[in-house]
Amino acid sequence: MERALTAKGTATRQRIVEGAALLIRADGVPNVGLDDIRAATATSKSQLFHYFPAGKADLMLAVAKFEAEQVIAEQLPHLADLTSWRKWQAWRRRVIQIYDAQRQRCPLSALTAQLGAGDPATREIHANLLDRWQGYLVAGVQALKDSGEADPGVDPLVAATSILTAVTGGAGMLQATDRISYLQIALTDAIDNLRRPVPATRRKSA
């Protein structure tokens, strides 16, 4: 159970977490020690252990939570406003841009590997992230249905799950191969499956 902090204490803790995240993004988890983080954030040893009693393990978990938040934050405002095909395409381009720039340097994946993918706290971070992400996508699919732009037979939860799986699966293959095409193809196809079918009479006339 996390201890209650004053507003000043919360700000100090967040400053340490964000400073550690910047170092890890630049140098990688194995190359960043507590002394590096203390120096970069102007934090004393006693102060660091006040906020993170278990030392690096506590701090890395806090950084993982921060990076999970960043996964969503980097997609905003697009992710929160998937109300038209144009906006869905803008979100798709943003996701591909993020992962194309990131390639094999995903800070959340690196932290997960360090903490242990099977650790309950790590699984909880991932589950919370995916649940929030899926929620935005469900709302977006429902918005397209409500406007008549999506296939009326589409199940928002099923479609959102398929789209999210395309992103995470494509990102995983990008990390393994350094090829962005997996993500581009999978995400484009998953979104295109939402489209309202063209009536047979229109296809014939075309």
TrEMBL record:
Residue ranges of domain HTH tetR-type in the record: 16-63
Domain Tetracyclin repressor-like C-terminal: 103-187
GO molecular function terms noted in the UniProt entry: DNA binding
Pfam families in alphabetical order: TetR_C_13, TetR_N
Keywords linked to the UniProt accession: DNA-binding, Transcription, Transcription regulation
Entries under PANTHER family matching the protein: HTH-TYPE TRANSCRIPTIONAL REGULATOR YJDC, TRANSCRIPTIONAL REGULATORY PROTEIN
Protein name: TetR family transcriptional regulator
Species the sequence originates in: Kribbella voronezhensis
